[in-house]
Write a structure and sequence with these properties.
The chain has 221 residues and is mainly α. 77% of the residues lie in helices and 0% in strands. The protein has nine helices and no strands. The longest helix has 32 residues, at 115-146. It is globular. InterPro entries: Seed_Dev/Stress_Resp_Reg (IPR051886), TGA_domain (IPR025422).
Length: 221
């Protein structure tokens, strides 16, 4: 799915999540979260299929904005960013409802994460960072091989393209693995809040990237 179509899908998902956020039935909320995960799975499967035909294009999508290519990690959000975003959103929400929490009123939303959940999230972050480092090192080796002063043979070139495709698939797999684990730690309402925050981030990066390309000078004044 190209960036424009994906952002349109994210905007639609965001509206749906906001509409049902106050749903008291936690089972229905969890079903909505599972539905969102299915959409992410479909998106990454589509990227994998695209990478089979054009691994370089998949890695550096020409229809993405310059800002998206600068911010994203191997054609998508770095998995650890999802965890950092959770911490940021949770902190903002916690501060806003601190007095209620001190009085024993728990909202159950993203600002009301328990110590046990935080411990699991911290462990997930450590494991995710280690996996990111491995993928970064693999991509670094491929980039070094591309700068070889000797022209590669067709078989060498095919081998390097296959490596780029494989690494892109690993990155998408880690993104999905991290997101699924993170949403599994959270309660349904908290998971909905995080999905809304992720959609806001991606929509915001896309919008700012387009605006920068239309008005590269005016935005900085």
């Amino acid at each position: 799915m190209d960036p424009k179509s994906w952002i349109q899908a994210q905007a639609s998902l965001r509206s749906e999540l906001i509409r049902f956020r106050r749903e008291p039935d936690r089972t229905k909320l969890r079903s909505l979260v599972d539905h969102a995960l299915d959409r992410y799975e479909a998106h990454y499967r589509a990227q994998t299929r695209f990478a089979k035909f054009g691994p370089v294009e998949a890695f550096n999508n020409p229809s993405a904005t310059n800002l998206e290519r600068a911010v994203y990690w191997l054609s998508g959000l770095r998995p650890n960013i999802l965890i950092q975003l959770l911490y940021t959103e949770s902190g903002h929400r916690f501060e806003a409802q601190l007095s209620d929490l001190l009085n024993g009123a728990h909202s159950g939303d993203i600002g009301d994460i328990s110590p046990a959940q935080l411990e699991k999230i911290d462990d997930l972050q450590r494991r995710t960072i280690k996996d990111e480092v491995v993928i970064d090192e693999e991509m670094g080796r491929v980039k070094e091989s591309v700068t070889d002063p000797f022209l590669p043979s067709d078989s060498d070139l095919d081998s390097r393209l296959e490596e780029i495709k494989r690494i892109s698939e690993e990155a998408d797999g880690l993104r999905m693995k991290t997101l699924r684990a993170l949403l599994g730690i959270l309660d349904p309402l908290q998971a909905v809040d995080l999905l809304i925050a992720i959609a806001d981030l991606e929509i915001g990066v896309r919008g700012l990237g387009l605006e920068l390309e239309r008005n590269p000078i005016r935005l900085w004044h």
